[in-house]
Amino acid sequence: MATLATERPTTELDDFREEVRTFLAENFPPSLKGKDNAMSAVEGPTQETPEQAAWRKAMGAKGWGVPTWPKQYGGGGLNREQAKVLAEEMARAGAWNPIGGMGVMMFGPTLLEYGSEAQKQEHIPPIARGEIRWCQGYSEPNAGSDLANLQTFAEDRGDHYLVNGQKTWTSGGQWADKCFCLVRTDKTQKQGGITFLLMDMDAPGVEVKPIRMISGMSPFCETFFTDVKVPKENRVGEEGQGWTIGKRLLQHERTNLSGGGSAFRTAGVSLADIAKKYVGVDEQGRVADPDLRARIAKWEMDWRVFQLTAMRVMAESKAVGGVSEVSSILKTVGTKLGQERAELTIEIQGLQGLGWEGEGFSEAELTGVRAWLFGKATTIYGGSTEVQNNVIAKRILGMLDHQ
Ligand SMILES: Cc1cc2nc3c(=O)[nH]c(=O)nc-3n(C[C@H](O)[C@H](O)[C@H](O)COP(=O)(O)OP(=O)(O)OC[C@H]3O[C@@H](n4cnc5c(N)ncnc54)[C@H](O)[C@@H]3O)c2cc1C
Fold first, then answer.
1. What is residue 262's predicted lDDT score, i.e. its pLDDT?
2. Among the atoms of ligand 1, which is closest to the Cα of residue 377?
3. 384 in ligand 1 pocket by Cβ < 6 Å?
4. Is the C-beta atom of 332 inside 6 A of ligand 1?
5. What is d(CA 276, CA 281) in angstroms, rounded to the nearest whole number?
6. Domain named Acyl-CoA oxidase/dehydrogenase middle: which ranges (predicted)?
């Protein structure tokens, strides 16, 4: 049938947008708006309602929780433009991604690059369906910033390794099904003696002790390994390649953490709107306090510049084959901006910004305080800001290592 000259021809992208809209209309109930049950929640998994479970399964079946991962492993197989359309339409519908956590953020992309075909087929689809939780076994009591000092030892026993040692700060270790772990297979070399292993958290000899924080929460654990048998098929890459693979995973982690983490939980509302509510407006309708107004404007400009830079870096990194050391710049700047926003929010709210519990405080105020406090961790985890600055100095600026 002939189309009118004024009609815009339907493009493939328009068709895809239509497909997304139909899918969302059929699968995302409006009652779930704002009821994000993300797998990455710091407080631990909350009980999924049947509605939330149905939404996770629908997204998992489409592969749209990991839109750009290959279709053959359960991903969406979308190109960048399609993924953007998906994100736009989900935002329009108020829909959230029910599939997340360390499997999506860090482990999946790393395994897709370094894993064997059998490992990809085994581990990627359950991540894409949101069925499996992964935790990260990197840090040890004497191996944080100096990660290559890790001592957890995996002894070669023919068809398996026997693992002994201790990890610490294992986020979500008590809820995880599996752990991607850096272990030592050679005591004579530092970085070159490290190997990347996949471990079952319910294997005999794995013991998890949640670390209780002053807030009463236990978002991370100590993890002990005593004579844990790990089949050789669970080694990613070669023996001694763990440092290279482990660093790659950190680049994915740092890129993902650059959003500032929970310091942005109040990010749906602009700082100016928060300020207008608590500080009031002048006769021109602007934030009444000129000094505060200038600081908010500076933050908004810095944030916008950061977002544009992040978009440019992501586009460039796609062109050159993925994440790189530039992730250290994104993490350093993004987390600093996240902390600054949280500080400004608390300052704007005055005494109302310091509530811990009680009826005198709104939900947003209480959430804001927790976000402000948790924001402190963002410049530590995934490698501290000082360590990122070292990476930037050495690997990006090419400055000499004087150590
Ligand atoms: C909330 C949270 C969650 C975490 N989750 C996990 C997890 O799931 N899995 C995991 O393996 N780890 C996790 N970690 C651990 C995290 O990776 C480490 O805390 C981090 O790498 C710093 O190591 P550290 O705590 O041992 O501090 P240290 O390495 O002892 O550092 C102490 C201080 O010295 C500074 N410093 C150290 N070396 C240098 C240097 N060469 N130059 C300049 N300054 C330096 C650091 O910047 C820091 O300020 C988590 C941490 C936090 C806070």
1. 45
2. 53
3. yes
4. no
5. 6
6. 135-228
Quote the CA–CA distance of 243 and 193 in Å, as a whole number.
8
Ligand 1 close to Cβ of residue 170 (< 6 A)? yes
Give the position, in ligand 1's atom list, of the atom nearest the Cα of 403. Answer: 41
Pure H helices in 115-257? 117-128, 242-257
Rounded alpha-carbon distances, angstroms, from residue 98 to 28, 33, 35, 55: 11, 12, 10, 7
Residue 263 has pLDDT above 50, yes or no: no
The 10s digit of each residue's pLDDT in 2-24 is 444 455 666 999 999 999 999 99
Using the mean position of ligand 1's atoms as its centre, give its distance from the Cα of residue 168 in Å: 11
Cite the DSSP H helix spans in 286-393. 290-319, 326-349, 363-375, 385-391
Which of ligand 1's atoms lies nearest the C-alpha of 173?
8
Count of CB atoms within 10 A of residue 109's CB? 24
Identify the bridge partners of residue 155 per DSSP, sorted by sequence position.
162
Q: Return the residue whose CA atom lies nearest to atom 7 of ligand 1.
A: 170
Is 374's C-beta closer than 6 angstroms to any atom of ligand 1? no
Q: Which domains does the chain have, with CATH numbers?
A: 31-128 (1.10.540.10), 134-239 (2.40.110.10), 258-396 (1.20.140.10)
Which residues, 6+ apart, have CB-to-CB distance to 296 below 8 Å?
271, 272, 275, 287, 344
Quick: pLDDT tens for 96-154.
999 999 999 999 999 999 999 999 999 999 999 999 999 999 999 999 999 999 999 99
58 has a pLDDT exceeding 60: yes
Nearest protein CA to atom 37 of ligand 1, as residue:
145
Single-letter amino acid code for the residue at 346: I
- CB neighbour list of residue 138: distance below 8 Å, 6 or more residues apart: 147, 150, 167, 181, 182, 246
Question: Could you give the 3-state DSSP secondary structure of residue 322?
Answer: coil
Ligand 1 site-directed mutation target among 105, 107, 139, most atoms within 8 Å of CB: 139
What ranges in 66-107 are assigned the alpha helix state H?
Answer: 80-93, 102
